[in-house]
Design goal:
Blueprint: E1 7-10, E2 17-22, H1 29-36, E3 46-48, E4 61-70, E5 77-88, E6 94-95, E7 98-99, E8 105-118, E9 124-138, E10 143-153, E11 156-168, E12 175-185, E13 192-210, E14 213-228, E15 231-242
Antiparallel strand pairs: 1-2, 2-5, 3-4, 4-5, 6-7, 8-9, 8-15, 9-10, 10-11, 11-12, 12-13, 13-14, 14-15
Length: about 250
């Protein structure tokens, strides 16, 4: 599959499948290096935004969103998203050269996080603990259907939705993705912007069932940018998921 908006490769240290959206510039190199050194920390004015706490994801993925921020605590706002990374544990769907699963339909659900800017206004952060409404993997057709949402509630500031069907899904590597359309609701009007973009995700673990649960988890990154009737809209997001019955 072709998803040129992202870097995608296997990491040397962990052997995880990485998807990365890099919005940084050369001027950000020193800041990013401080996150990557042996004792990573958050440089003044910057923060790593995601800290997954659910045990179901422990050891199966690493999610990182580096951002420039203003303010602290309850007044903190994101001014720029530098980089989004989803590292996913390997997909184990081959044993002795044969597929563990070559047929069937599997479901995953989980969390969604998004950062959106409309017409040069400050970035609005959105999140939903159930925002990966559904990821449906069809091993027979080797396709993935995905539905992602955020709303305006609690600390979530922007309503968004992605509904993409029949994205290519590699049942050997676990990679899936392709072209998507992101809907963004303008918080100041009734306008809904539809912006074209791209999504790339990976499956980790095994499709084999144990205690009525399949052993797969997923993570991924998406991005979209465009202009609708003179209004510029930019969106970056990450998502994670697992067997719905494994979630807290």
């Amino acid at each position: 599959m072709t998803t040129p908006a992202f870097e995608s490769y296997t990491t040397n240290d962990s052997g995880f499948s990485r998807v990365r959206r890099d919005n940084s510039t050369d001027a950000d190199a020193t800041v990013i290096a401080q996150f990557e050194d042996a004792n990573p920390n958050d440089p003044a004015g910057y923060r790593s935004l995601i800290a997954l706490s659910d045990k179901v994801y422990a050891g199966s993925m690493t999610i990182e969103v580096l951002a420039e921020v203003a303010g602290t605590g309850g007044t903190e706002t994101v001014t720029r998203v530098l980089r989004l990374t989803a590292d996913q544990a390997p997909f184990q769907n081959e044993q002795n050269g044969k597929l563990v699963s070559a047929t069937g339909t599997y479901y995953l659900r989980g969390q969604n996080f998004v950062w959106a800017a409309i017409d040069g206004e400050p970035i609005r952060s959105g999140s939903d603990s159930n925002g990966l409404v559904d990821l449906v993997l069809n091993f027979d057709t080797q396709t993935a259907d995905i539905n992602l949402r955020t709303g305006v509630t609690g600390t979530s500031e922007v309503r968004t939705e992605i509904a993409a069907d029949k994205l290519p899904f590699n049942i050997r590597s676990g990679a899936y993705g392709g072209d998507i359309t992101v809907q963004v609701w303008d918080p100041d009007s009734s306008t809904i912007f539809a912006i074209d973009g791209s999504l790339r995700g990976n499956i980790g673990g095994t499709p084999a069932y144990e205690d009525s649960l399949h052993g797969m988890t997923t993570s991924g990154v998406y991005t979209a940018e465009g202009t609708v009737e003179g209004t510029a809209v930019m969106v970056d997001g990450v998502f994670v998921g697992a067997d719905p019955n494994a979630l807290p």
